[in-house]
């Protein structure tokens, strides 16, 4: 899972294959000056390649992970200093040392670690003659590596804010979609209570009305919080949220839809994550409701939905799997766009605004969302939640 978390973090930063950002370039130049070496590089290392996103003393390029010196130390992220790489068994046969690519002798690197604890690369300096790095220069290299990550984070958050603001005026239209399911549950419970011939004496009246009141309270809270979320551009109160508890509340709100579809829905092992409880409930509600709805249109088998989670480096990955028709790979990005729809031939009603809401909520929590194939035969919608501090 380490490579998966690293790949997702690198994708979020959007720096691979692009010209060096001026702020990033200045940091690599400062690293060379502070360490008094001719060459410094900022490397981003994925599961296959090393990408030099900024450099001084050479032209930034790409090499295989197998040839990378920094890839040998990234899985144990810490400051590394090597006076003469020819004498270090980790690097002696490396093509950057042997002359096949370069003739590195002195090598030092400090890891680039995201706020969620994922190492994505290094800030490294090197020279073609043996030498040592002073204590002060070693500390400075570590500080500069942290500043590189700070710049990448700032760029990422700025892009998210820009995208959020572009969609903000459309967000109010999505709120009603999020409220339909709890409203349907509320209406159903009230109708059952009203149909009771002796409401005052019916043994189940109190339970039915209590369930209706609970759904109404959740709906009211969701209205207020989602509209606040839209007004302030994606903010929310960050506390530790028990996703298992929120999922059970969702199943209560969706009980009428689940029963109507005769769906088998199971939720187990969901963690506590930092976030806004109402927004995360809306997220789970959309994902489970969609899974039930699309599984039901398949028609040939009983709808099956499984909600589960697994711990990954720096956070959690929650999945909602179903046995429906799935989502074709070319459509898996498009369905998260506002008003996007699936295949009309499937006969599913709705404008497709739920997944747009989901993506917005996930991004506001610093996470990612996507779709893959499910072992159940349909779609697997996954959400990654990074570890975050609470308010």
TrEMBL record:
Keywords: Kinase, Phosphoprotein, Transferase, Two-component regulatory system. GO terms for molecular function: kinase activity. The keyword Kinase applies. The keyword Transmembrane helix does not apply. Its EC number is 2.7.13.3. Residues 174-389 form the Histidine kinase domain. Gene3D superfamilies: 1.10.287.130, 3.30.450.40, Histidine kinase-like ATPase, C-terminal domain (3.30.565.10). It is found in: Cell membrane. This is Sensor-like histidine kinase SenX3. It comes from Pedococcus aerophilus. The lineage of its organism: Bacteria, Bacillati, Actinomycetota, Actinomycetes, Micrococcales.
